[in-house]
Amino acid sequence: MISQLLTPFSQPLIMPGDDYRALPRVSNSDLTRLKEEHLGYWSVPSARFIPEKTKAFGRAFHQHLLEPETVGTVLSQFLPDMMDPALRPDGLAPAQTKQLHTLMQTIRQDGFCRRYLRLSERERIVLSTEPTTGIACKARLDMVYTSPKRRNAMVIDLKTTSARTQAQFLESCYTYDYDRQAAFYVDSLRHADGREWSTTKQFRFVFIGIMKQSPYRLFAVDATSIPGFIDYGRKKYRFWLRKWRDEQTAETLAAPAWSMSA
Question: Within a domain: residue 210?
Answer without folding.
Answer: yes
